[in-house]
Amino acid sequence: MKQETVRISIIGFGYVGRGVAEVIRRKREYVARNYGIDLKLVGIADLWGVIADEDGLTEEAIGKLKAGEKQGDITSRDLITEIEHDVMVETTPTNVETGEPGLTHIITALESGRHVVTSNKGPIALEYGTLMDLAAKKGKELKFEASVGGAMPIISLVRQDLAGNGIISIKGILNGTCNYILTRMAEENLPYEHVLKEAQQIGIAEADSSKDVEGVDTAVKLVILANSIFGMNATYNDVKVKGIMEITPDALRLANDAGYIIKLIGDVDSGGRLEVAPRLVPKEDPLNVGGTLNVATIKTDLAGDITVIGKGAGPIEAASAIFSDIIGIYM
Amino acid sequence: MKQETVRISIIGFGYVGRGVAEVIRRKREYVARNYGIDLKLVGIADLWGVIADEDGLTEEAIGKLKAGEKQGDITSRDLITEIEHDVMVETTPTNVETGEPGLTHIITALESGRHVVTSNKGPIALEYGTLMDLAAKKGKELKFEASVGGAMPIISLVRQDLAGNGIISIKGILNGTCNYILTRMAEENLPYEHVLKEAQQIGIAEADSSKDVEGVDTAVKLVILANSIFGMNATYNDVKVKGIMEITPDALRLANDAGYIIKLIGDVDSGGRLEVAPRLVPKEDPLNVGGTLNVATIKTDLAGDITVIGKGAGPIEAASAIFSDIIGIYM
Q: Does B284 sit within 8 Å of A304, measured CB to CB?
């Protein structure tokens, strides 16, 4: 098979960025054999250091950066603009107010003629139209499957697998932390505060989990779906949001007795409705998935209802979505 | 948007072929606007007549063919070879022993330089390797999403959305008739023969439903997944098959009491295991879907388990998968 070299940079070397580097290392041979693509990681940037090597980074250099050793005398901007490469992977933390620093990274990379693949929700939710226009102008791709639903395919599923379908609505559980909390509360008849603390102790919820439990994270993902799939021009302020903080074990028990379960559901439809709220879901509904799973039911005009379920979180899961996006550019 | 004309023929004008014609009619403007493709149906062939018009068939001509009026003095072979077009849609009935007449249609179309999109399981299960080699040699695409799971995306989901993932196994309910029968038996505590008759009366089961209830249909779909996704060279004889005819209401009740439900599960894995059999599925498992729904859980090395649920049958649903395949050729 003829091999095409694809040079990659990773900006943001936290859990997801490290997952991407690990997946590239582990899967390099597989991808060469199956897709004719020779993946070469040529640069990594994080706050404490930037490394670059146009011949491909050594394991040693990556190991040192992982260990927190300060390295390199170039900036992340230098890496994006000066080091010749094909795809910039943006995995810095999400900021839903400003989109930064991801927004600047993405604009800089597109301006420099790089394809962009990101897990960063902020820039996509805030500036979808502007960024897509820039990508189109530059003839480059901007892909963001990892920003919604982690490893669960939804953007590519709607755009490719369901191509030609009119999309009527998308409804689902897009936050694994909330799903875990509600599932445990229902199963064990425990109060919200207790389960939240437990989730924080085992690393399923962050120390500051307000963005999850207040529904903000779900709302931002809905905005991404609204703009990228429904062609809206929505922002976070267009979403009616209610979190899970006031759900009681009593409410869950009452729902259970009536054959329902309570889930934090995000709901977007072609009429412009954008809503995040706890909802009663019939137990036999495909949306009733437990633990940290994510799920989405896509209502279409031809295929009927299509439901997809997958792991919404985890570094390798997000890296998986990024990885499929990268390969998708060259398929 | 620049428009590319895509000329289409449909060979086999039963429920699915008519569904495709209907979807093309209904969606022509939508597809032109969203994908820059001008779909033009230039020929339809069935046993009782063949119509063709390089400028696009009129509604009147299609209506007459639908009404069973014998028309045209060309053969389906003439249509495939002589009438200039881009995509041949093959929707004749499945024959799992010979693959005919679909096999000949597909070979003729590829030889004539047409892309092929089909819902016909026979040719794909019997001659996958030969057909893909021929398509590659001719530089044409051969797509068959509709052959497994109807409107439920699985082939494109694995190949595109999960690109780069190693696929460990696929396990699922691939026959809506069996799922309907088992669901009704469990819900109503009714014997197999009773529910089968009911399913035949309301058109969910065919008069001769042996291929469904004996597991043959599921096995053929497994062979398609084995060859197209796992790169095997399998045939129907490699599949260990057991149907649902011996499931009793008692067995379903016992399973229910233990928190399980019985489903006809098709199972293929990268180790070469190919099996169709009734299995206990935990009630909370994503594979527990009711009615005529299809479902598949794809176990991957990066994305973890991904489950997809959708309508496995119905002319518009199969047509939907064919339609997405057609558009996918030009995306």
A: no
Report angle CA B149, B8, B82 to the nearest 5 degrees.
125
Give residue for tokens 């799992």.
B96
Contacts of A327 (CB under 8 A, 6+ apart): A31, A35, A37, B163, B164
Q: Which residues pair with A116 in a beta bridge?
A: A88, A142
Residues of B in contact with A145 (CB under 8 A): 161
The residues near B235 (Cβ < 8 Å, ≥ 6 apart) are B125, B126, B223
Query: What are residue B133's phi and psi, to 5 degrees?
Result: -60, -45
A289 DSSP 8-state letter: -
Q: Are B302 and B277 in contact (CB under 8 A)?
A: no
Per-residue model confidence as pLDDT tens digits over B260-286 = 999 999 999 999 999 999 999 999 999
Please identify every residue of A annotated as catalytic.
221
Sheet bearing A49-52, strands edge to edge: A49-52, A37-46, A4-11, A87-90, A115-118, A142-143
Phi, psi (rounded to 5 degrees) for A261: -135, 150
pLDDT band at A266, cuts 50/70/90?
Answer: very high
What the block records as the tokens of A165 is 């379908």
What is the identity of the amino acid at B156? S
Of A17, A217, A221, residue with least CA distance to A128 = A221
Please report, rounded to a whole number, the percentage of residues in chain A having pLDDT higher than 90. 93
Q: B131 near B123, Cβ under 8 Å?
A: yes
Q: What SS3 string covers A173-203?
A: ECCHHHHHHHHHHHHHCCCHHHHHHHHHHCC
Q: Are B261 and B253 in contact (CB under 8 A)?
A: no
Separation between Cα atoms, residue A96 and residue B264, nearest integer Å: 46
Q: Which residues of B touch A305 (CB under 8 A)?
A: 310-311
Token readout for B252 is: 């379903």
Torsion B57-B59-B63-B69 (CA) sign: negative
Distance from the B289 Cα atom to the nearest Cα atom in chain A, whole angstroms = 7
Alpha carbon B151 to its chain's center: 8
Q: Measured between alpha carbons, how far is B273 from A81 in angstroms, rounded to an integer?
A: 49
| B27 noted as active-site residue | no
Rounded to whole angstroms, the Cα distance separating A315 from A320 reads: 8
What do you get for the CA distance between the two ends of chain A, in Å? 14
Structure-block tokens of residue A293? 């799973």
- For residues B324 and B315, which has the higher predicted lDDT (pLDDT)? B324
Residues contacting residue A74 through CB under 8 Å, at least 6 positions apart = A50, A52, A82
Instruction: Report the alpha-carbon distance of residue B139 to residue B329 in Å, rounded.
Output: 12
Q: Report how far residue B286's alpha carbon sits from residue A307's, in angstroms, rounded to the nearest whole number.
A: 10
Q: Which residues have C-beta within 8 Å of that of residue B73, sequence separation ≥ 6?
A: none
